[in-house]
Amino acid sequence: LYYNAKIAQNHYEKSLIEARSGVDITEEEINTINKDIIPLIKKKKQSVNQIYINHPDILYFSKTTFYKYVNDGVISLSNIDLPRKVKYKPRKKKKDKENKRNQSILIGRTYEDYIIKINNEPKLYIWQLDTVIGLNDDSKCLMTFLFVETNFMIIRLLDKKTMAHVNEAFDQIKQKIGIDDFKRIINIILTDNGCEFFDPIHIEYDLDNVEKLCSLYYCHPNSPEEKSELEKNHEYIRYVLPKGTSFEDLTVEDIKRLEDNINNIPRDILGGYTPYNLTKEKFPTLIEKLESNYIAPDDVSLNKKDIIFH
Predict the structure, then answer these.
(1) Rg of the Cα trace of the chain?
(2) 157: β partners
(3) Which residues contact 134 (CB under 8 A, 6 or more apart)?
(4) Dihedral class, residue 46 (left if φ above 0, else alpha if ψ from -120 to 50, else beta)
């Protein structure tokens, strides 16, 4: 090993140029920071927060950008000169950001808000929303959407349990039903705290006309009893697709047959009516637009062989 001053200097200058490439700060500003700010940190052990408060004229950019400049070697400071940064583990900023966003979503949409709403406006039509999963490593899942008044359930096969796929499913439902009927029949939606439902604006609004169609509310965490009607209907799904069953080979046609069979099962809570018959009697356009099928009583089956054809 040997040291060559000229090579070392060239290497230093090249590294400095590369570090500063694409940086939105002038050479003069860098020199000012090195001259006036860096000594406060290195010699007087002032915190970054302290110098930001006292020198906003020099540090006009964000603290995140400041730390980036440190990491990239843009200014004459290293992480070791920042004792608090070395001492403490980095905060999980993404999670903190998500938590703040989640809390903001819940404003005006909590279960308590839901109870107030239905007590003040008892004639509104309520729907419940959830997802059903197969194996833990499955990509596909089912989105279930239940009309509480008639126990009529819409089931959609999602390729992934994500916000984007839920939004796509609702876009399709709005298109099939039509915006006017969607607004008339779907007034309130109650769902759980799954992150796939954390785009309430997309669900609540007709984005083309910027018109609110319904109101979305969230149950308390781990409180499935708050949407008990939908949880009860999930039992019918589990007759055909018990826990531990993979959903990966399911098709849209399979799920449509499953939906039709479940909706043609009579319920004591409906006075012996089936969800299909009661919904057709009260909301015939909903049945027609969703292309729901009648199944004769003796032909209704929850036998997997009668529904899943592969």
Answers:
(1) 29
(2) 142
(3) 140, 141, 241, 245, 246, 247, 248
(4) beta
* Segment 31-61, tens digit of pLDDT: 888 888 888 887 777 788 888 887 887 888 8
- Strand residues in the chain grouped as ranges (E): 126-133, 141-147, 152-158, 188-191, 205-206, 211-212, 215-218
Q: Is 156 buried (19+), middle (13-18) or exposed (0-12) by CB count in 10 A? A: buried
Provide CB contacts within 8 A for 123, sequence distance 6+. none
Nearest to 127 by CA among 183, 166, 175: 183
| Reported pTM | 0.69
Q: At 16, is the pLDDT very low, low, confident or very high (cuts 50, 70, 90)? A: low
What backbone phi and psi angles, to 5 degrees, belong to 150?
-120, 0
Could you tell me which of 309, 299, 305, 310 has the C-alpha nearest to residue 261?
299
Tokens 């729901």 map to which residue? 292
Instruction: List, in sequence order, every residue forming a beta bridge with 215; answer none if it has no partner.
Output: 188
* Residue 299 DSSP symbol: G
| Cβ–Cβ under 8 Å, residues 194 and 128 | no
What are 67-126's pLDDT values in tens digits?
A: 888 888 888 887 777 755 544 455 555 556 566 667 788 899 999 999 999 999 999 999
pLDDT of residue 93: 54
- 3-class DSSP string for 171-197: HHHHHHHCHHHHHHHCCEEEECCCHHH
For 44, the token pair is: 């007087």
